[in-house]
Amino acid sequence: MIAEAALSSEATGSLLGRWEARFKLPGLLMLIFSFAFVRDLRLLLPLLICAALIYRFSGLPLGYLFSRLRLPGFFLLAMAVILPFWSGQTELWRFGPLALRLEGLIGLLLITAKFTAILSVAVALFATTPLSQLTIALRTIGMPWLLTDLLLFTHRYLFQLAGDLRRMRTAARLRGFLANSLSSLKPLAYITGSMLVRSHDQAERVFQAMTLRGYGNTSLPLPVFRPALSDYLLLGAAMLLAAGFILAQYML
Amino acid sequence: MHIPDGIISASAAVSGYAATGGLTWLSLRGIRKQYVNPRTGIPRAALLTAAFFAASLIHIPIPPVSVHLVLSGLMGVILGWFAFPAILVGLLLQAVMFQHGGLTTLGINACLMGLPALLAYFIFRLRYVFGWEKPLPNAVLAFLAAFLAVAFGALMAALLIVHATPAYMDAAAERTAVMALSLAYLPVALIEGIFTAMVVIFLLKVQPDLLEGDRR
Amino acid sequence: MTDALNISDLTFAYPGQSPVLEEINCTIKAGEKVGLIGPNGAGKTTLFLLITGIIKPSSGQLIVLDQPVKPGTFNPAVGMIFQHTADQLISPSVREDIAFGPQNMGLNQEDIRARIKETAELTGITSLLDRPPHQLSAGEQRLVALSGILAMWPLLLIMDEPTSDLDIRYRRRLIKLLANMTGKTLFVASHDLEFVLETCSRVLLLEGSHIQADGDPAAIMGSENLMEKHGLEVPHSLSATWHRHKK
Question: Measured between CB atoms, does C101 come within 8 Å of chain A?
Answer without folding.
Answer: yes
